[in-house]
Every structure is written in C-alpha cells, then in structure tokens.
Amino acid sequence: MSGYTKEDMQALLKKKEERLARLKRMKEERKKRQEARRRAMASTVAKTEDPTTGTDVLGVAPVTTSGGTENSNDGNAGASTPAKSVNLTAKASEVLKSISHIVSPAKKEKAELGFSSKITHNIQPAPRVICYDKGIQIKLETEKEAELKEELEKALKNSVGCGPDDQEGSVGFEGATKIKTEVKSIEDERAEEKAFQAQLLPLAERKRIMRTEHFLDFFRSSSKVVERALKQNEEFDVTIDYAKKDGMMDEKEEAMVSETSNFSYGMRTQNRPITSITWSPKHDSLFLVSYAAPHIEHLSMDPDGLVLVWSTHTPDRPEYVLTCQSAVLVAQFHPTKPEVIIAGTKSGQVIVWDMSVKITPVNRTSLSQGHTHPVYAMACVPAVNKAYSVLSVSTDGHVCIWQDIDHLEEPSTELDMQLVGKKADVKERDITTTCFGFVGRDSNSLVMGSDEGVLYKARIYDGNASRGIYSFISGAHKAPITNVGFRPPIKGLPPVMSELYITSSFDWTTKLWHTKTRKPLYVFERCRDYVYDVKWSPVHPAIFATGDGNGMLDIWNLNKDTELPTQSVMATEKDRSVGKLAFSNDGRKIAVGSSSGNVKLFTLNENLACPVKEDTDKFYESMRARLQVMAQLQSQQQENEKLRHYSSKSYSNMPANIHSLLNSDR
C-alpha cells in the first residue's frame, strides 16, 4: 500500500465507518418502507378482489388450503366459495415482481422494490493522494501491503453489500475487524519507519556537523568513490563502431601516443618542479609525485615537502596529500606494503608515511645519524625473511643501508664511496652522485652517475677490503648525469640483457651502455636541450623514453631506429621542461611531470607498447651483435695501446741496446 501514511489510513477507516453507518440507516429506512409498502399492497389486493369471480383485477386466482370447502378437483367448476386463508405475502411478492417488470422493462439495471437479499451500490473509495517529501525514499508498495490492500478491498465489498442482518458475528463484521487489526499493525510499522527516516536539522546544527573531522573524512572518501565511478564512463567509448574497417579508423584511434589526463592541484602544485614519479606496485591506477619546495615569491604557507598520491580515475584532486618540513627529492612505494611511502629529503633525512594512519610522517631518520647532504637517490633492496632494507645515497657519496622502515634510528651499514685498489692520488678525488642503478637483480653491484659526468661501478656488500668503487668511466658524459637506468628483467629475455643500462645528461645526449664495455653501444643525440630523465619500458625490451628541456617526450624503439625516436610529443606547456617521467606497470601509460608542477598522462598505442615474440628475439640479436663488435674494438684498442707502450719503451732503450751489441761484436 505504497504511499499510505498513518493519517491516510485513519482517514480511510473514518470514511469506511461513516459509510457503514449511512448504509445501516438506509437499510433501516428501506425496511420501514418495505413494511409500509407490504401493508399497502395487502389492503389494495383486498379492495380490488372481484367477489363474483374470486379473482383480483390482475387475474390472480385465490389460493385455498387443503381443508377448504372448495376443492379444485371437484367437478362443479361453477361453484366457488371465498378463500379462508390467503397467503397475502406471496401474492404481494408476485404483484411486486410483475410491477417491477411493467414499470421499467427497458432498464437493465436492478430496480428491486421488495425483499432483495443483496443491495448493490456504486460508492467508490476516495482516490489516494501520494505525497512526496525529502525523507528517505522507499519502495512504493511492499508485497505484504499489496496483499493487505487486496484483502481490504474484498472486505469492504463484502461489508457494504451485506443484507440487513449485518451484526457482530457476520462475515462483513468479522472482515472489517480483521482489516482494522492489520491496518493497525501497518500503522505501527509506518511509525517505526518514520522514526528512522532522516529529518532536516536546523541550519546551525548542519554547519556544526559539516565542520567536524568525522564528516569531512566521510565526505572525502565517499566523493572519491563517486568520482571514480563517473571517470569509468569516460574510459569506454560508447560510440565505437566495431564493424568499421581498418581504413576508416578515426585519427584519435590511430594515434600512437595520446594525452588522456592532466593532474594538478591548484596553488599547492603551481610552479613546484616535480622531483620524482613512481607507480604503485599493487594498484595499477595509482602513482605518486613528489614536488620541490615552492618559490619564495609565492609566500606559500604549505610545508616545503609535498607528495601527492594520484589515481588515474580522479585527475582533479589527489587521493592523498602527504607533507613534511623538508623538500622531497625522491619518493617511492614500499615493494610489499603499498600503503607505505618512503622518501629522501633535501635535509638528508629518510621519511616514511603510512597512508592508512595520517598524512604526516610516521617515522624518519635523525639529522645526526646518517646523511648530512641531500638524498637524491634511494631504493628498497631485498633482505632476509622476505623483508626489504632501504639504501640511500647522498650527494657526498655517502651510502646508508637502513635495516627496515621501523628501525631508522641509525643505519645498519654506512659506506663512504672511495676507490679501492688504485693509486693514492686517485683515492682523494671527491665522489658526488645524484643517481644510481642496480645491475639487474644483483643488489650488491651498482652504477652511480655523478655531477662530473663520471660513471662509478661499486660493490656495497663485499668484505671491508673490497667494498666501494672498483671501476669508473671518466668522461662518460661531458655534463652532470641526470639518471642511470638498467634494462628491467623481462620474461624471455636472457639475463645478460639486464646488464644493459642507459644514461641521460645535461650534455644533450643519451647513451646506451653494457657493464662489460667501457664505451657506449649507442649515442642518441636527438635532443636539443638538457635531457632530464630517461626510463625503460617495463614490458617492451627495445623501448625507452626521454624528456628534455624543450618539453619534448621522445619514445625510442631500438628495433626500428637508433638515430631518431619513433614518436615525439610536446608534453608540457610553452617554455616548460620535462622533469621526470615513469612508465606504468603494463607499459601502456607514461606519466610526464613538468617544471610547472603539472603531470600529464599519455597512453601508448597497443601496437607500440606491447611486444611480440619477434621483438624480443630481434632486440637480443641486435644487442648481441653490437656487443661482439664493441668487444672486438675494445680488444683491438687494448692491443694497440700495448704496442704503443712497447714501442715507446723500445725506442727509449735503443741506444743502450745498440751500444751493448756493438761491444759484444768487438
């Protein structure tokens, strides 16, 4: 009985009781009229009876009892005597029936004037008025209410159509009583529902509730859910034509690199250069961005350290806003705890956030223990019992290994990077580094890039005598090195390919190296400005991306070309540079951060980003051939150096040799 309130039910019951009382009065009046009519008809029959024939004016013969003096079977038909006992009631009924047919023969509806056992009516229940309010919307009619409504209609019909004997114990009375009881139960249920319905609070109370932290947390979390759901509608093209031929594809579908989203957070990120971008190892749609300190002219009240956790479904606002007092230079997710974020700061501290607890750090290193210079590079390395240690490197070449994120009081291992096994004059050179990369899956060997353009190869877990830098490549670049990235392990790719690494520098070049060579395998000179970052694709063996000071994003495919990039896109605003970039876990998306504080998300076409078996084989064969050529050149160069060294030594000793030979000849 959808929409029936307590007041509606009460009004309905009141109308029903009034209708029953009115019908009862009508029945009593009808009974009186019938009695009067019966008496009138009896007197009329007595007056109109013909004394000579024994019949009335309508031709109705008198009826006598079996004990009468006149017998219908008697042969004397002409004899007739007055009836002693005439059933006037039966005769009146017959007269009334004949009158009803004579008076209204054309009318089909019932026109009973006498003793009908049922009385028809056309009284309809009042129309139901449905009222709407701002309360909780419920189902219009439940199954129980529908059944009760049907029973109510039947009971009302029976109670209205009953005869004059409608009293306690009759069917109509019992049905009405039952309906009243059920209606009362429905009213009670309605009262309980109304008690749980939302009620409009006063304006002052609403404002007070909306200022509470509990309400703000609820509003933030629920609005994120709604925004994610709305964003999903944009990711699927509802107008796609699956029957369209390949030659009729839209230009947007044919684009190899297309921009999909732009992530910014108003004044909090405006003109704050991006220092690192990292994707979550567990959630494919989640990535974090760390920002440098704001410029002085903005006079921002925000802390210098800022890390925003973005979701690809909500580009208009971040999922989490994490802050600290020192500018964040590098940040990343914990490999096994996706809610934990670790960062290195300009003050030399290592910061730990737990997104499930609060937005401020839950742990940090001491200023007196560990680093005293900015930490630009860090990584989580596997330890015993499936745990992870944190390895951080500061610009002064100081390496600290922290046991885990819960024990940051002091580092478990400290190492000042120095050359081992070299001459004393070489040991004194300053080691400055801003980036490093582990050799494949070996967490003991790493390659570090420095501000002098030198590449250092070091070991960190060997004995005390051999820990440190065991080799370096002087003049690897002619300007500071901005990043060192090793080829991530890929299924089907031999482990030797994981020893390939790529470097970017302010000398406008990007170079591909192998740990077994001292010369680059390839030099990429396409950029016309500083190269700020370079990253390998995590799924395609031959693809990497670079970002430069002109704002260009270049996608390189070594299987197709080693001179020019496969795709180039302007990824930033005018006069802005690409600061950092990062591939998603599936290799289909790449996040690009600019010096203005904006992050743009680009989607790579499946034909470009996803490899096939031939791509892996082709890359391996080309790299192996290149390594063989470089090994031959390197061995030939070493032989030439030995020959030059031997020749110079022979020439210096020639006079003495000749003198000794001459003396021996004498």
Structure, briefly:
By secondary structure, the protein is α+β, with helices and mostly antiparallel strands.
Number of helical elements: 10
Largest sheet: 4 strands, antiparallel
Low-confidence stretches: 55-86, 99-123, 160-169, 247-252, 423-427, 654-666
- End-to-end Cα distance: 138 Å
The shape, in one word, is elongated
Q: Main sheet: which strands, in order across?
A: 1-28-27-26
State the total count of DSSP E strands.
Answer: 28
Please compute the radius of gyration using only Cα atoms. 51 Å
User: Which percent range describes the beta-strand content?
Assistant: 15-25%
- Overall pLDDT level: 77
Share of helical residues: 25-40%
Give the class from helix and strand content and strand pairing: alpha+beta
